[in-house]
Amino acid sequence: MKFVDQVLSLFLSGCLVLATAPGGFAAQAGQSAAPPPVQPAQQTPQQLQQLVAPIALYPDALVAQILAAATYPDQVVVADRWLQQHTNLKGEELGKEVDKQSWDPSVKALTEFPSVLANMDKNLSWTSSLGDAYVNQQQDVMNAVQLMREQAEKAGNLKSTSQEKVSKQGQTIVIEPADPQVVYVPEYDPWLVYGAPIGIWPGWYSYPGLYLGGPGIAFGFGFGIGFFGGFGWGWHNWGYDWHHHGIIYNHNTYISHSRVFVNRNNFNRAGGFHGAGGFHGGSSGFHGSAAGQHGFSASHAQSGTHSGAFSGFNHGGAARGFSSRGQSSFGGFHGGGFGGGGFHGGGGGHR
Known about the structure:
The structure is a single chain. By secondary structure, this protein is α+β, with helices and mostly antiparallel strands. The protein is built from 13 helices and 11 strands. Strands 7-8-9 form a 3-stranded antiparallel β-sheet, with helices on one face. Strands 1-2 form a two-stranded antiparallel ribbon. A two-stranded antiparallel sheet has the order 3-6. Helix 3 crosses helix 10 and helix 9 crosses helix 10. It is globular.
């Protein structure tokens, strides 16, 4: 019996060595049990058109700021809530306080347009999908912007006014402020303004001051940008290079350093992505110190029909409740009501 026990002990020891050795049973089992992370699908041209529809008719520099800021959805939320808590700050005083923040220049720039920033916060799933699409399909996104502008022009809804100048550079449609010191954000129904109706982005919330019921385009109060001119992130530092399909910031090509979204081209070459404050494996949502500080967690990043960190989070549904309650919450972060989110006529003033 003792002999049998010794043989059995030796047998089990041998199995243990094989199981734990490099390339052994355990390693092989681990390899087969760990499939490659699932990558979000590329947006189709139709989905991209639907995605850019709410901003395609904005001035070029504002489109550039929005696309860049959309790659930092966590900062968008924080900046919007910060503005709501500092409604007493105006003009240059506001600019000085914004300048102290650690946000990306694109997010700082959008504090000049509080209703635009608030819209991105309330439609967080859309913002996230926009940022993901810009990171991974930059040229396709800008092609979609141009296509939507062409459709709006053919529908008779895009033309020069006293608020904005619409011109063509070859086949490219360019939109600029008519007055370089005052920027007007057009109000329109993004699902009707392009002629034939297009599908509404899932969960879309129509933010007051940016939405016009019915066809056509209207303009509210202008945003004076004079007081923000002295800051490196201000309006005049932004533009778009349509020829190279890139955002221009401070006379150079803008490069987002956000780690919220996986660059799928780099991911596929490197075999994976691991970055603080970003996606791990491309599907688990926000992790790391940057996200954790603001109350985001993976439990809110469910799978959905659209890519992006908040794809499955129907912020539109939360926003509808927001409109009746006067406040909203996301992942433990609570913000106030619409304060600071609407139009501020001459908010930057004229010099």
